[in-house]
Amino acid sequence: MLSMLMRSIDVARKSLRLRQEDLAERVGLSVPTVQRSLSGAIDPRLSTVEEMARGVGMEVVLVPGELRPALENFIRSGGRYLAQQPGIDAPPSAVDLLLREQAGRADNA
């Protein structure tokens, strides 16, 4: 699971066009720590993973195992609740509301 998480962080880093050196500077880690963490050469501490994730705009969230399938289904559905009507007249999903809130904060900044 850690290797999947580190791959996700690396994909996000690349999509932001950040070099490993840029990420290291952004989050206050050494370049070798970032390089070895992303390559799988070391097993980084959770705090290191969290900092690297935040550096690329992600958050690490721990979820109880029994809730994981429900959470994954919710995410796959785009934040729509079971039996929520589809289509243009549908009320906004939880994801839609969060994105609007985030956009509003960005506009006010």
Protein architecture, described:
This protein has helices spanning 2-15, 20-27, 31-39, 46-55, 68-76, 94-108. With 109 residues, the chain is mainly α. It folds into 2 domains: 2-55, 434 Repressor (Amino-terminal Domain), CATH 1.10.260; 65-108, no CATH class. The longest helix is centred in the last third of the chain and has 15 residues, at 94-108.
Question: Keywords for this structure?
Answer:
109 residues; 434 Repressor (Amino-terminal Domain); 6 helices; 60% helix; globular
Our count of helices gives 6
Average pLDDT works out at: 86
CATH second-level architecture of the largest domain: Orthogonal Bundle
Task: Write the element-wise H/E pattern from the N-terminal end onward.
Answer: HHHHHH
Kindly provide the name of the CATH class of the largest domain. Mainly Alpha
Beta fraction = under 5%
Counting structural domains, the number is 2
Task: Draw up the topology in text.
Elements: H1 2-15, H2 20-27, H3 31-39, H4 46-55, H5 68-76, H6 94-108
Helix pairs in contact: 1-4, 2-3, 2-4
In short:
The chain has 109 residues and is an all-alpha fold. The chain has helices at 2-15, 20-27, 31-39, 46-55, 68-76, 94-108. The chain folds into 2 domains: 2-55, 434 Repressor (Amino-terminal Domain) (Orthogonal Bundle); 65-108, no CATH class.
